[in-house]
Amino acid sequence: MTPFRFIGDQDTALGFRFAGVPGDVVANAEEASRAFQAALADRELVILVLTEQVAQWIDPEVTAHKLTASRPYIATVEDIWGKRSKARSLEQLIYEAVGVKVLEQKQ
Asked: For the whole model, what pTM was predicted?
């Protein structure tokens, strides 16, 4: 099994396959959720690459997993249509999950 996996649209998946990264082609939120859960069950998986569209479809699941800080680590990439939204920082994810702002302390 490869330590990388991709979930996204058919066209972007083709590019990842040329690079040797296997993955799942999904067309809606339900398919994306099933592929995401299957990827999380793979103990050898280190990095899971999602297109921005897939990440938007299953945002609550992706956010919940990112907050666990466990493998697989999730990377969000543009699909063939380009950038869809601004990625959220870890500080933004923490604020959304628990309502606490993380501030940098200057000395």
From this structure: 0.74
